[in-house]
Design a protein that fits this description.
α4 packs antiparallel against α5. The strands form two sheets. Strands 1-4-5-8 form a four-stranded mixed beta sheet. A four-stranded antiparallel beta sheet has the order 2-3-7-6, with no helix packed on it. It folds into two domains: 112 residues, Butyryl-Coa Dehydrogenase, subunit A, domain 1; 105 residues, Butyryl-CoA Dehydrogenase, subunit A, domain 2 (Beta Barrel). The termini are far apart. It contains seven helices and eight strands; from the N terminus they run ααααααββββαββββ. The protein has 235 residues and is of the alpha+beta class. Bound molecules: flavin-adenine dinucleotide (FAD).
């Protein structure tokens, strides 16, 4: 019985994606698990085949699909029985921050690459001493005129080694109330002061490149804030 209202185009998307997974994903999983990484080219292949960020608007190169496409993406990756290729974190968790809160300039700059698989994203909230209680994060973003300067560290970050762009939660050190101090910032790989740590060893999910990230006097442009300053706990 079909519970969700899939249409013909959803079924076609699923069929093509399942075929892609059968050919390009499943045979390579043992190798990726051993290498503890999914090669970036796989992301590009997946993106260019139209399977990443299916809900992103056509203006930015996406399919402009509804949420059922995201459901299909999550299901078909789950059927492959591995979690290294964390396409749904990219497509349905991180990229939606940019879609919902990025300025038009930011959307035009990053979304086409996210759809094509040239930009792999991550979200960095958890810290060594702040997991469930996000309000206790210590990473700061100091407002310095034209820039924000980030200092702090994050841990357990999925796609942490492969990521080209990270949504980072950080607090304004000048605001005392932790619930009002936090904002989200975009940091590009290659920015001075942004360093990736080691891949973390885990009990499972070996091909998922979960890692630590470090920010040391990491200067990012003012426009890289997502949404209104300090809105994280207020929306
Ligand atoms: C494989 C993996 C991938 C991850 N990917 C990401 C990522 O991409 N980005 C990111 O930001 N984070 C990521 N995380 C981190 C994840 O979000 C945190 O592990 C999670 O928020 C829990 O935090 P913690 O591990 O510090 O546990 P803690 O907060 O220390 O919690 C430990 C235990 O105590 C319980 N507990 C905590 N507070 C209370 C309370 N007040 N009352 C009762 N019980 C409580 C919790 O339920 C839990 O069982 C990842 C983690 C893993 C393991």
């Amino acid at each position: 019985m079909q519970i969700l209202p899939y249409k013909k185009e959803h079924h076609e998307f699923r069929k093509r994606l399942r075929e892609f997974c059968k050919k390009e994903v499943i045979p390579n999983i043992p190798m990726w698990e051993q290498q503890k990484l999914v090669p970036k080219e796989v992301w590009q292949h997946m993106g260019r085949s139209g399977f990443l960020c299916p809900t992103v608007d056509k203006r930015y190169g996406g399919l402009g699909g509804d949420f059922l496409y995201s459901v299909i993406l999550a299901e078909e990756i789950a059927y492959t029985n591995h979690s290294g290729l964390f396409a749904s974190l990219h497509s349905d968790v991180v990229v939606p921050y940019i879609v919902s809160y990025g300025s038009e300039e930011i959307k035009q700059k990053y979304l086409p690459g996210c759809v094509k698989g040239d930009i792999i994203t991550a979200v960095a909230m958890t810290e060594p001493d702040a997991g469930s209680d996000l309000s206790s994060i210590k990473t700061i973003a100091q407002d310095q005129g034209d820039y924000f300067v980030l200092n702090g560290s994050k841990t357990f970050i999925s796609n942490g080694i492969n990521c080209d762009l990270v949504v980072v939660a950080a607090r304004d050190p000048d605001i005392e109330d932790p619930y009002k101090a936090m904002s989200l910032y975009l940091v590009e790989d290659g920015t001075e002061g942004f360093n990736k740590g080691n891949k973390l060893d885990k009990m499972g999910m070996h091909s998922q490149d979960t890692a630590e990230l470090f920010f040391v006097n990491c200067k990012i442009p003012k426009k890289n804030i997502l949404g209104q300053k300090t809105m994280v706990f207020l929306c």
